[in-house]
């Protein structure tokens, strides 16, 4: 939804990593992701730089799933600063129980890649893709045990990223999501970005 609104590409590091696995170039990455652990900073930094250097990101991009550690944040901020890129960090404030429910309910079409949520955005026919009728599948990293491991990793490694952005004076916009549906959260993010733009224009 944000991609359509802003007219810039959505760069999901998770999807980029999965593409590498499908191409056969990331077997070590596959084992790490299936266990719920994070891929090393060095590997992810290189992959992100390569993706953000592609022509479609020239006018901006939505970076999703990165940075997840303070070292990654420091690295990408240096990379941004060296290229005159100014980022806005969107911090979604949400209850962990809501996260677990949403992710454990996520399904994806193995053919076209369309993502559904069996609770908030189900397909028209149970467990079948609306576009091609393929049976939907749950990703290995959407199992509850893996999700809880990812949340523990978040507290250990990613929470300090927020502290870094704030202490470094980077722009951080907090959006309290509660249990709102994706459409409502989308509008809340757009409103927050509009307020930020107005503030910038007034300086």
Number of helices: 8
Given this structure, which CATH class of the largest domain is correct? Alpha Beta
* Total beta-strand segments: 6
**Shape annotation:** globular
When the domains are counted, the total is 2
State the low-pLDDT regions, or none: none
Beta-strand level of the residues, as a percent range? 5-15%
CATH topology name of the largest domain, in short, is: Rossmann fold
End-to-end separation: 29 Å
- The CATH architecture of the largest domain comes to 3-Layer(aba) Sandwich
CATH homologous group name of the largest domain: P-loop containing nucleotide triphosphate hydrolases
User: What helical percentage do the residues reach?
Assistant: 40-55%
Major beta-sheet overview: 2 strands, parallel
Order of helices and strands: HEHHHEHEHEEHEH
Mean pLDDT: 85
Describe the structure.
With 203 residues, the protein is mostly helical. The chain has 2 domains: 1-86, Rossmann fold (3-Layer(aba) Sandwich); 95-157, no CATH class. 50% of the residues lie in helices and 12% in strands. The strands form 3 sheets. The chain has a two-stranded parallel ribbon with strand order 1-2. A two-stranded parallel ribbon has the order 3-6. Strand 4 and strand 5 form a beta hairpin. Helix 4 (41-52) packs parallel to helix 5 (70-82), helix 5 (70-82) crosses helix 7 and helix 6 packs across helix 7 (144-167). The protein is globular, with a radius of gyration of 18 Å.
């Amino acid at each position: 939804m944000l991609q359509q609104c802003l007219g810039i590409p959505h760069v999901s590091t998770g999807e980029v990593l999965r593409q590498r696995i499908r191409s056969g170039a990331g077997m070590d990455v596959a084992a790490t992701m299936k266990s719920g652990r994070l891929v090393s900073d060095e590997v992810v930094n290189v992959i992100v730089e390569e993706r953000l250097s592609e022509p479609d990101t020239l006018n901006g991009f939505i970076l999703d799933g990165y940075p997840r550690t303070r070292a990654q944040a420091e690295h990408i901020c240096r990379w941004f600063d060296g290229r005159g890129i100014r980022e806005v960090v969107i911090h979604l404030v949400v209850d962990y129980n809501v996260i677990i429910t949403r992710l454990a309910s996520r399904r994806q079409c193995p053919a076209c890649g369309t993502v559904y949520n069996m609770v908030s955005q189900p397909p028209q026919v149970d467990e079948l893709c609306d576009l091609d009728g393929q049976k939907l599948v749950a990703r290995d990293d959407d199992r509850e045990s893996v999700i809880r491991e990812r949340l523990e990793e978040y507290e250990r490694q990613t929470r300090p990223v927020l502290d870094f952005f704030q202490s470094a004076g980077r722009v951080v916009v907090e959006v309290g999501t509660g249990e709102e549906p994706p459409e409502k959260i989308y509008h809340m993010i757009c409103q927050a970005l509009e307020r930020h733009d107005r503030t910038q224009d007034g300086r």
